[in-house]
Write a structure and sequence with these properties.
binds adenosine-5'-diphosphate; 8-stranded parallel β-barrel; Rossmann fold; binds iron/sulfur cluster; 28 strands; 3 domains; alpha/beta
């Protein structure tokens, strides 16, 4: 049962005319599915309802067609036609007593309108401010436009009510919502009564709140999501100005939702941001208003949550990523199962689903966004199939997730691990600069497995095909990982590159095993995710003189999708790493590399006593192929199935490995689906011509 020190988290709290059953508040968060995958997004919110959240919000919902953020896929409430899909979501949210919230977004200077082709409207005429630097400008809202916009907000509020929501969040944070655009002197350079003084800049939000109150305020709570600090220099909406704004407008919304200025700051990865990193910016705001306050900070520890409430910093504990990694977090606190909380590792893979307009994944919770598509529940597995036991070979994220999920299905599971420690790449990578939180992928699963009578872990057990044939397990799950290549093969070179015989070549595996180059070291990064940048940090800390060469225009290019690319570049630059962009490496000598410009081919030489190849990985699949070669003997050995998955099958980020392990466990002994699609999807209903 619940520890009494967490009782305070379960107190009911009023938000205007409605009351939340507890202080666990799932703030709006994207999921990459949005309007394209309405049932998948709705079911995901429904799972959070089951997990005990007191408040559950949608992602941002574009409330009028004159402002949208294509190519990003969020929700839309442009006409009555959109109501049924949103009602499906609100109904799911309310199944276990949560308040259902909708976040209404008018993207103003952040909406390029690539789909609707409408001219964007913003407080002042400026270029659109997006991740993609679209070559589009907004025109300034006229007074009559402002009247229209107020009416559109009222229309959207009425539709939100019809769609069954209890709460409306007006979006004015992260640089994405029009309320911030009006509040900030950077984006509001108007000379009329909507610009200039803070009172004038706050006029629009005051008008919209009053309009919506009149329309739906009797039954719906109104929250305002504002930036804690715009962090764009002197003109930006600063933390000091925010405090002034809240003091001047103490009772404006029914709840203040405080989020950091840019999304990159607000959803900072654990590599650069601790849990509760926004505390200083939030602290002291609570006393400026009589209304409750919610804030975020990748909170996964109920003790930190209690401290936030008891110190008078927050009334509600806002969570996006922690609610993705463990939708059952509140329920686990309630049931006294703190050790069962699957803590977010702060990798921001979930965000990449939105940034790549695909559908989100979560490293820690492979069921995220598969609740409807595949019927995967984060806490419940499908019943056990016909066979009885599984030998899992390899204890990396793929093997550990498979083992833990198989255990829950009721299989007897043995894990054999060649090394003397568990966790595979996660254990090794969690020792790299800034990545310690990633160890939670191992910790959660190891702890769970150790509680189970039907799981055994054998360390220091490198298995050969002959060993496996002898053991008598029915199912063989091969999750033996991958090895970084030494020969330069990745994207620039699809076959091995010219390397002098006595050149000193290192791979990330060498560095993680403690074999460290010194002196002038070139990192050749043709992988483009975090590894090249992280190893640059490691090498500088070890005293090396580091040059990072990459054919991309950005260092750690793919981390644009995890919102950390700019921070990585700044960190490496501050550490003295020589960052060389748009250049490849075509030849490695004993004391230098020859680099080529990716556009012109012009070459240049860089001194290099050693080269670290951050290129690609080869699956460790020898064991798998050895077993396949003995398929004729499987029946005699009692073997029913042999499967390879995770990095051994095809290397990818850790989230791909946990997903692969989970999928293996779900599908074991299940009927073969043949050529059928492996998940459900929705197709837009055809109009009647
Ligand atoms: P993934 O990301 O797919 O889980 P990892 O590389 O993290 O892959 O983990 C693979 C694990 O498998 C490593 O810990 C490695 O030591 C282990 N391993 C590799 N080959 C064998 C083998 N033949 N027997 C037992 N363990 C193995
Ligand atoms: Fe946390 Fe990573 Fe999961 Fe996102 S993907 S919720 S950051 S563990």
């Amino acid at each position: 049962m619940r520890d009494s020190r967490y009782d305070i988290l379960f107190e009911p709290m009023a938000i205007g005319p409605v009351t939340a059953m507890n202080r666990f508040y799932q703030v709006p968060h994207c999921n990459g599915g949005g309007y394209r995958d309405p049932s998948a997004a709705a079911e995901m919110r429904g799972i959070k309802a089951e997990g005990g959240w007191g408040v559950i919000f949608t992602e941002q919902c574009e409330m009028h067609h004159t402002s949208e953020i294509t190519p990003f896929i969020e929700l839309r409430l442009w006409e009555d036609k959109d109501i049924p899909q949103l009602r499906r979501m609100s109904e799911k949210m309310k199944t276990h007593g949560a308040l259902a919230g909708i976040q209404l977004a008018y993207s103003g200077i952040n909406g390029p309108n690539l789909y609707t082709k409408e001219v964007p409207l913003a407080p002042s005429a400026l270029p659109i401010r997006t991740f993609t630097n679209d070559p589009v400008q907004a025109r300034a809202l006229s007074k009559s436009d402002i009247r229209d916009l107020r009416r559109w907000f009222v229309n959207a509020a009425k539709r939100s009510k019809l769609a069954g929501f209890d709460l409306i969040c007006l979006y004015g944070a992260h640089g994405f919502g029009i309320f911030q655009h009006f509040l900030s002197r950077a984006t509001n350079q108007r000379g009329d009564e909507y610009g200039g003084s803070l009172e004038n800049r706050a006029r629009f939000v005051n008008e919209v709140v009053a309009d919506i109150r009149d329309a739906v305020g009797d039954c719906m709570g109104l929250t305002l999501r504002v930036s804690l600090d715009e962090t764009i220099g002197e003109l930006g909406f600063s933390n000091a100005e925010l405090r002034e704004f809240i003091e001047m407008n103490r009772d404006l919304p029914d709840l203040w939702d405080l989020a950091q200025g840019t999304w990159e700051d607000c959803s900072g990865p654990s590599r650069f941001k601790e849990e509760g990193a926004q505390e200083q910016l939030v602290s002291g705001i609570r006393v400026l208003t009589s209304k409750p306050v919610v804030g975020v900070g990748r909170f996964t520890s109920p003790d930190v949550m209690v401290r936030m409430v008891k110190s008078g910093t927050l009334d509600f504990i806002g969570c996006a990523r922690p609610s993705i990694a463990d939708p059952f977090l509140p329920r686990k606190v309630e049931e006294g199962r703190i050790d069962d909380i699957r803590e977010c590792i702060g990798c921001n893979i979930c965000i990449t689903g939105d940034m790549t307009m695909s559908i989100s994944r979560c490293t820690q919770n492979p069921t995220f966004m598969e609740e409807w598509r595949k019927g995967w529940h984060p806490e419940r597995m499908n019943p056990k199939g016909e066979s009885g036991n599984v030998l899992v070979i390899g204890s990396g994220p793929a093997g550990l997730e498979a083992a833990w999920a198989l255990c829950r299905r009721g299989y007897d599971v043995a894990i054999a691990e060649a090394r003397t420690e568990i966790g595979g790449r996660v254990t090794l990578e969690s020792r790299l600069p800034g990545l310690s939180a990633w160890g939670r992928v191992r910790d959660y699963r190891e702890y769970q497995l150790r509680q189970r009578p039907n799981a055994e872990i054998y360390l220091d057990s490198a298995l050969s095909a002959a060993d496996v044939m002898e053991f008598g397990f029915q199912n063989i799950a091969i999750a033996t990982g991958a090895t970084w290549r030494r020969d330069g093969v990745a994207r620039q070179h699809v076959v091995p590159m010219p390397i002098a015989d006595n050149a000193r070549i290192y791979t990330p595996d060498d560095l993680m095993a403690g074999r460290m180059p010194a002196g002038d070291v070139v990192i050749y990064d043709d992988d483009h995710y975090y590894m090249g940048g992280v190893l640059a940090e490691l090498l500088v800390k070890n005293g090396a003189n580091v040059t990072l060469i990459t054919p991309s225009a950005f260092v750690s290019d793919w981390t644009n999708n995890t919102l950390e690319q700019a921070t990585i570049h700044a960190r490496l630059d501050e550490m003295g790493v020589d960052i060389v962009l748009n250049r490849g490496v075509i030849r490695i000598g004993t004391d230098h590399v020859v680099s080529n410009c990716v556009y012109t081919g012009k070459t240049r030489t860089y001194p290099a006593e050693a080269v670290v190849m951050v290129t690609s990985r080869t699956g460790n699949d020898t064991l798998y192929h050895d077993l396949v070669a003995r398929q004729a003997d499987w029946a005699d050995a009692g073997i029913l199935s042999v499967r390879v998955f995770g990095d051994a099958e095809a290397a990818g980020p850790i989230a791909w490995a946990t997903y692969a392990g989970h999928r293996y466990a779900r599908e074991l002994d299940e009927p073969d689906r043949g050529d059928a699609l492996s998940f459900r999807r929705e197709i837009t209903g055809l109009a009647a011509e």
